[in-house]
Automatic annotation (TrEMBL):
Its main location: cytoplasm. The gene is rimP. One of its GO terms (cellular component) is cytosol. GO terms for biological process: ribosomal small subunit assembly; translation. It comes from Hymenobacter roseosalivarius DSM 11622. SUPFAM superfamilies: YhbC-like, C-terminal domain (SSF74942), YhbC-like, N-terminal domain (SSF75420). Keywords: Cytoplasm, Ribosome biogenesis. Pfam families: DUF150_C, RimP_N. It comes from the Bacteria. This is Ribosome maturation factor RimP. It is found in: Cytoplasm. Required for maturation of 30S ribosomal subunits.
Amino acid sequence: MRFDRTQLLEMLQESLSGPELFVVGLTVSDSAVRPKITAILDSEQGMGIEEYARVSRRLAHRIDEAYGEEASYTLEVTSPGADQPLTDSRQYTRHVGRKLQLKLADGTEKTGTLEAIEAEGIQLTEEIKEKSKTKTLPVAFIPFSTIAEARVVISFK
């Protein structure tokens, strides 16, 4: 059974319960026996397990309607892991006040505290290590268009 990713994405969008939820990723494995469909969702406020279950049931129902109940697949509806990069500008909202590690399109890297989100980018207080000290630079605006990858720095302090 071959699943159409575009059709699955449309079904997933229809399965979301409100505008606060958004799709971060959708993958379909190449397995011909029992493909795995993985939907990665997020929201600016975070999601509870009940919401994931609700979306999963709605999506499974739509898949069964479109492909028939005999279609064999595994469905996983999940959130992006803590180690996953931020891929949607809406994901930044939850992380204001946290430290980010950025890789920019020009190849440079920046680490600092996310101060604020704007329509076109973020405000970041960059931290630079000089010998044994950390120097904090003034807040700088970084456009989303220049961010190649952004990750939350996980701290266990």
